[in-house]
Request: fold
Amino acid sequence: MTDARQDAPSFDGDDMVLPFTVEGLDVRGRVVRLGPAVDAVLARHGYPPAVSRVLGEAMALTVLLGSSLKLEGRFQLQTRSDGPVNMLVVDFDAPDRLRGCARFDGEALAAALAAGETSTGALLGAGHMALTIDQGGHASRYQGLTPLEGKSLEACAHAYFRQSEQIPTFIRLAFGEEMVGGPQGGGRYRAGGLMLQYLPRSPERLRQADLDPAGASGADAPGDESDAWTEARLLAETTEAHELLDPGLPASRLLYRLYHERGVRVFTPQPVREACRCSRERIINMLGSFSPAERRDMAADDGRIGVTCEFCSRRYELELAQVEAELAAAAMAASGEGGERSP
Reply:
């Protein structure tokens, strides 16, 4: 942990989350910077630029929210809506694995762009955003829902925290393309985000936190006790997209610009990497959810079942006979018939 001074370690670099706190204002937060991780996902799928932007923002938001998980667990952001980009799925597997994919209607997307409906809210349309926390083991699985209603992902996240968590929260997301190799070169996608939460400790500020956290929606909360959150939020609102994306501006330097007068402190950054959870074993387990007749219908004439992972586009070719044998062996082991029995 260190002060975010100009002479402090820069904590620069991509694909990382930098936690911080501003004790003078009773706020904590995180800055996320995504470079190769988000570019690898988007380049692999070859999405249109507008779809890449929406998914890139969703990936930055997922890391901001999911990186609060300790040691293990999965955080998933999923949208289902009636807009041109009708589904997003982004997984963050603690402590550092990120993957994502999108579905879209090409004709509807072209029509929306031609009509100038280019905002994230317009491309998503009406529907809902689900945030799911699964920490595995015996821990309970939690899911929160918030309506999209043509709003940005930032606005939906604000609504979620206001209604479900009742924690005054501010989130800013950014997405862009970094040109490399001069005018004739290609581009690399980048995404970033800033998250700020008001968690007062003093009795006076705790009483204010029990009231309607109007500051989370952008309105000032009444009373002098709201001054700390109002100041913190207004400073965060000055953050521009290029500051969250600029590889030459370390995240710690950005935080110093915002909160040096209040004593911002940064903690050890957490790495983030693009990685898929798919495997041959998981694919076979998934096929086990279908009946033998359905699996036979899936097989091609050569007796193989082909499955492509929607996240990483990896193709699996599995022999139907081998799949059936492995599923039968797994079922036998699960029933206790495949091993020694206790006397």
In short: Residues 5-10, 208-225, 338-343 have pLDDT under 50 and may be disordered.
